[in-house]
Amino acid sequence: MPEPDAAVLERRAEIVAAMRAIVPGEGVIDHVDSLRPYECDALTAYRQIPLVVVLPDTVEQVAAVLRWCHANHVKVVPRGAGTSLSGGALPLADCVLLAMARFNRILDIDYADRVAVVQPGVTNLGITRAVEDAGFYYAPDPSSQIACTIGGNVAENSGGVHCLKYGLTTNNVLGVELVTIEGDIVRLGGRTLEPAGLDLLGVIVGSEGLLGVVTEVTVRILPRPETARALLIGFATVEGAGQCVADVIAAGIIPAGMEMMDKPAVHAAEAFVQVGYPLDVDALLIVELDGPATECSHLLEEVESIARANGAVSVRASVDEQERVAFWAGRKAAFPAAGRISPDYLCMDGTIPRRRLPDVLTRMRAFSAQYDLGVINVFHAGDGNLHPLILYDANEPGQLERAEAFGADILRLCVEVGGVLTGEHGVGVEKRDLMPAMFSETDLAYQERLKSAFDPGLLLNAGKMFPLLHRCAELGRMHVHGGAVPFPDLPRF
After folding, report:
1. Shared-domain flag, residues 39 and 135
2. What is the pLDDT of residue 483?
3. How many domains does the chain contain in total?
4. Residue 290 φ then ψ, to 5°
5. Is the pLDDT of residue 182 over 50?
């Protein structure tokens, strides 16, 4: 992470006092013991206690905090529920950590227009709970939906098991209220599908807190489908499961969800939730179809036929809603299940073309042997979004470093086969220094120019997304003194 600004650290008492003047009462946390819960997010391998934590109650307080920090050149790191798996909410030693947990109200639900207006601290599942009695739901459903907040979903463009048919967060957000680093309050998008002006909303969703602080989100809510049924399909080989995925999509069938788990993941999940997963298979597919009952029954038969043609050794269809939910319970519990078999793990996130699934899984097994670390695989098979869980023990010297190198090789492999570095977890600090593997210097420069248009002082979520050495060059320009650049022995991106 960037070296903390010594001048800012020396002004800590002044900064804390200024924050207390803006957010009175218990809205400012500055005691070191009380700051520790904020020292990391779900990427727990990296930790840093922030300078101070501020919990605003109102949009006006958010604007005042940002305006003061801008005027006094103090960095700000926005934080939601802290479930980021890429270190997106990792604090800095010289930052104001702006925690949005108190923005937890649902402001409006409009069933006629099929929208809900919520504050960023509302949990993902909380939206569905608020509208389900009327027969509606919010489609994106990341595995952490019980805890993750809609503000964090917007920051990372989160997905979930149903993103294949219903899209990621960006496909389900219609508008946001945003506070800029200068303290201006702006609205992007709204309740309509095609608002006027430049599509800056598409820039904000997935911007990882680098461009502004979201204080309100308008999301699309959908009617519950008439029927939803799931198939649990076991394969003797990963290759057969991968080909089945490709053949289902090629047949014009778009399932509501299509997830794959390899054998170690199946065993870990079944031991944890005991939902009846077959343990004698090398790969397990969960395929969900939804819509009218007749259509679901027809598509279930079509998918089963495709699966059998690809060597499926077991096929089981859910008979009721309870069993369908149970099928998904194992998949959604795969991450905590991994915690039962390994002291620590890194959850990676990369996306590849579906047809390359067998090749990539074979290469990952080779990496596992090379680094002498276990790996289990769960992923959104329908769109090729991989989530390898690299198993390691942080108490064993060198294992964290090997796990990081293993993860970097997986992400480089994703790019090599035509994929991307991230599908839904974001870049954060985890993938920051791998960005040059995917983007040219020109690509990065244009992204940085966009960042600078919103945040010219580079105060928002500093140290994230852009490779540090590249960022230090300030859009590729390097100060030269006496014919030499600083640190000439270091490689430049």
Report:
1. no
2. 46
3. 4
4. -140, 165
5. yes
Mean pLDDT of the chain: 92
**Computed over its alpha carbons, how large is the radius of gyration of the chain?**
23
Residue 214 has pLDDT above 50, yes or no: yes
Question: Rounded distance, CA 230 to CA 448, Å?
Answer: 44
User: pLDDT tens digit string along 335-391?
Assistant: 888 888 899 999 999 999 988 888 898 899 999 999 999 999 988 888 889 999 999
Helix H or strand E segment including 202: helix 201-204
- Work out the burial of residue 405: count CB atoms within 10 Å of its CB; fewer than 13 is exposed, 13-18 middle, 19 or more buried: middle
192 close to 182: Cβ distance less than 8 angstroms: no
- Give the Cα separation of 211 and 204 in Å (integer): 7
Q: Count of CB atoms within 10 A of residue 332's CB?
A: 22
**pLDDT tens digit sequence for 461-477:** 999 999 975 544 444 44
pLDDT value for 2: 84
Q: How many of the other CB atoms lie within 10 Å of CB of 74?
A: 24
Alpha-carbon distance 420 to 223, whole Å?
32
User: Which has the higher per-residue pLDDT, 1 or 460?
Assistant: 460
**Contact call for residues 350 and 411 (beta carbons, < 8 A):** yes
- Residue showing tokens 């819960």: 37
Domain residues for the domain of 192 are: 106-223
Structure tokens of 416?
């090599």
- Report how far residue 325's alpha carbon sits from residue 318's, in angstroms, rounded to the nearest whole number: 9
Q: What is the CATH number of the domain that holds 273?
A: 3.30.70.3450
Residues 211 and 300 in one domain: no
Confidence of residue 479 (pLDDT cuts 50, 70, 90): very low
Q: Please tell me the predicted confidence (pLDDT) of residue 482.
A: 47
Interaxial angle between packed helices 399-416 and 357-371, expressed in degrees from 0 to 180 and rounded to the nearest 10: 160
| Residue 165 and residue 259 in contact, taking contact as beta carbons nearer than 8 Å | no
Domain boundary pick from 290, 308, 335: 335
Taking the C-alpha atoms of residue 295 and residue 243, their distance in angstroms, rounded to an integer, is 24
One domain for residues 189 and 170: yes
Cβ within 8 Å of residue 148, ≥6 positions away: 80, 81, 83, 123, 124, 142, 158
What pLDDT shows up at residue 493?
40
Residue 419 has pLDDT above 80, yes or no: yes
**152 CA to centre of own chain:** 8
| Spatial separation of the C-alpha atoms in residues 441 and 457, rounded to whole Å | 21
**Three-class secondary structure of residue 414 per DSSP:** helix
Distances (CA, A) of 118 to 46, 199, 216: 31, 21, 6
**Of 174, 193, 223, which residue constitutes the final position of a domain?**
223
* Residue the block writes with tokens 């086969």: 417
CATH number at residue 188: 3.30.465.10
Q: Is residue 461 part of a domain?
A: no
Q: Is 100 left (phi over 0), alpha (psi -120 to 50) or beta?
A: alpha
Give the pairing of strands 173-179 and 213-220. Answer: antiparallel
